[in-house]
């Protein structure tokens, strides 16, 4: 979660009105999704729940931290970060402890209402299964080797997993630089540089053209390429949520 926090707390992801922030925090409270609590002076992370929002009195109520010694960490008066999710998108804010309280018969923490709330609109951390027909054949052009082709299995804002036919000359290797990966997405041709992040085992040797999963990370994406990918990921993610498959 620290990796998410390092990306989330930037001005570009700042919610600009109190109404938007309260709406997002309210969703987290209603769905009772886990809330990660990260004391800024400690490496350990803890979990909690957002139980109650009181905008008028500028405070929130969160459940006691798990593991239990986390409540002592935040009681030391240091600021801490909270990370949750609203509709699958990361939400974060900074706060500090006001006091430990009882809430509906259980231990809880009264914390300061955040001055600023951040909302990671770009879903680069989410990977979605690509719908059949949405993505055309993927081609990887290589240095000193023949191009290889495959089908996109899933896609995120930072890369994709491909079911790839095995090269006939030189095997793909983890860390290999790909000068060009090219594919169609919703009828639009896209191209970028990439790097091989992992090479999986062959799925089956019993078929005529066995495939293996290969993960790539996009490099030096153009703004148009990145926006096209993110639009698809967000649209597909909402579609899968409606279908109840995520």
From TrEMBL:
Signal sequence bounds: none
Family annotation (InterPro entries): PilZ_domain, Split_barrel_FMN-bd, T3SS_YcgR_PilZN
Record-linked Pfam families: PilZ, PilZN
Entry's transmembrane regions: none
Residues of the PilZ domain: 121-233
GO molecular function annotation: cyclic-di-GMP binding; transferase activity
Domain Type III secretion system flagellar brake protein YcgR PilZN stretches: 13-118
Entry keywords, A to Z: Bacterial flagellum, Nucleotide-binding, Transferase
The keyword Nucleotide-binding is assigned to this record: yes
Name this protein carries in UniProt: Putative glycosyltransferase
Organism of this sequence: mine drainage metagenome
Lineage of producing organism: unclassified sequences, metagenomes, ecological metagenomes
């Amino acid at each position: 979660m620290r990796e998410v926090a390092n990306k989330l707390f930037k001005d570009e992801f700042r919610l600009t009105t109190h109404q938007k922030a309260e709406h997002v925090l309210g969703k987290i409270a209603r769905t009772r999704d886990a809330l990660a609590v990260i004391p800024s002076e400690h490496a350990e992370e803890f979990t909690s729940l957002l139980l109650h929002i009181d905008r008028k009195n500028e405070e929130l109520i969160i459940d006691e931290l798990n593991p239990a010694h986390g409540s002592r960490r935040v009681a030391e008066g240091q600021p801490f970060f909270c990370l949750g999710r609203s509709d699958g998108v990361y939400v974060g804010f900074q706060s500090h402890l006001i006091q430990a309280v009882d809430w509906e018969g259980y231990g809880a923490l009264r914390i300061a209402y955040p001055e600023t709330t951040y909302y990671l609109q770009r879903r680069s951390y989410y990977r979605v299964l690509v719908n059949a027909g949405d993505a055309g054949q993927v081609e990887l052009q290589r240095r000193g080797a023949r191009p290889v082709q495959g089908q996109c299995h899933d896609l995120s804002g930072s890369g994709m997993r491909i079911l790839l036919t095995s090269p006939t000359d030189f095997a793909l290797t983890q860390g290999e630089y790909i000068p060009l990966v090219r594919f169609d997405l919703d009828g639009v041709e896209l191209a970028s540089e990439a790097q091989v992040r992992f090479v999986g085992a062959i799925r089956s040797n019993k078929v005529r053209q066995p495939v293996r999963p290969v993960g790539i990370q996009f490099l030096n994406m153009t703004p148009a390429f990145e926006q096209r990918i993110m639009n698809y990921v967000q649209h597909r993610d909402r579609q899968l949520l409606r279908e109840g498959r995520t």
